[in-house]
Amino acid sequence: MADRTQFGLSAIDSVPLHEKVYLELVRALMSGQFTPGQKLTSRRLAKELGTSDMPVRSAFMRLQALRALSPMPNGSVEVPVISAERFSQLTAVRTILEGSATELATKRINGNNLRAIRRHSSELTLAAREGDIDDYLRKNYAFKFSIYRHCGNEQMIFLIETVWMQVGPFLRNLAMGFEDDLASILDIDYHEEVVAAIEAQDAARARAAIVRDIEEGAAHILRQARFPGAGR
Amino acid sequence: MADRTQFGLSAIDSVPLHEKVYLELVRALMSGQFTPGQKLTSRRLAKELGTSDMPVRSAFMRLQALRALSPMPNGSVEVPVISAERFSQLTAVRTILEGSATELATKRINGNNLRAIRRHSSELTLAAREGDIDDYLRKNYAFKFSIYRHCGNEQMIFLIETVWMQVGPFLRNLAMGFEDDLASILDIDYHEEVVAAIEAQDAARARAAIVRDIEEGAAHILRQARFPGAGR
DNA sequence: GGTCAAGATTTGTGATCGCGATATTGCAAA
DNA sequence: TTTGCAATATCGCGATCACAAATCTTGACC
Fold this sequence. Notes:
Chains A, B: One of its GO terms (molecular function) is DNA-binding transcription factor activity. 2 copies of one chain form a homodimer. By secondary structure, chain A is mostly helical.
């Protein structure tokens, strides 16, 4: 479905190349298409994308500022290797930010919002039962941000997104630890409890449920993950 | 004190130009040398700095990713114009993040750390009494981060820094509202109370003091600031 | 088989150029 | 003086080139 004006002309695409490259890299990173530690060079990537290396360099700069890519001493970038310590720190920050956002959102959510959240919640449950990891992660993202979006603080949402940019690519590689048993993740998944708390307008309970969801998920990951420098 | 090798040669400076431009822009932004709403163009800035526009473009990309510069529809960037709403949101995020960081830090600070914090605190008091706004803001930054640095969570510090990058340039222009009466800011400055709470190892009290410091400072600013779109 | 140095390749970095779009200026008409 | 518009200057963007440093390859030698 190409964009067409009323005269049948295709709409001029004014989105800069570097922006497209950036979005493409975010997508690739968040869906775990790169291996942690993988080195990315602007020239090679440019060749793969069929552009010059300039737009790629721009995208690298942005991603590196957000810590979604790690700068190497020689100026190259690599997909971040997350250590157990960094993962714990990011989890701690997540509980603080996402807990607060949930608490704020609970007080502002109305019927219409709630209906959308419930839909995301049931889709999330479904995805877990069906065992599709990619779909599960995508639905998990959609569900949580359908709540955070209503916290009334755009700055907070931005910060949460930057944290997810750092954890996201990592989660993908770890969720694979569940293999065919993705449904078992529902045992430590409190998203139904979150919805119930929001319905009851109980902000403190909603915060507690989100925090618990984040923490138990992280603990489960820490249990079965192999982190660099922690033996093999 | 230039870097000299043992042969008296000046050390080759291998810091990339785009990094220097970035640091220079951060410094200029944080010290309020740009007016909110001011448009920055890579070409003009490059000419002023005596470089090509490439390093400037890189620096723009990074600052824009961190929201320290706002992208314009045509791709230019401008120094962010902060609205009353955005300022309130950023303040709310600050209380959450910096409150948590202070609470965590209180539990980890030992005698040596405390001595440095006390020094920063007294320097801050001194700067307020002397009435030098720039010095006050610098000391305020140094004092607060001398605490946050010990929170044991590098990711949290990074997020706090990005928030400061957004509020910093704005604070400068508003602190000028105090004019010759900077010493009066001490009336709503709870940094001595923060130090006392840390000394007493009372994490909850330290958090409350920092939050109060942030909130009352922000309230004072909101009272006398002229925000865009709020009449004149 | 392992080591190391020379050569070849790749890479980051920054300058420059060209294109199309945007913004600014200058001037004439109302 | 204000309005309309064309000439001009400036700008974002992306491609390409040059150069030095880093990295990889290769092959001779111990």
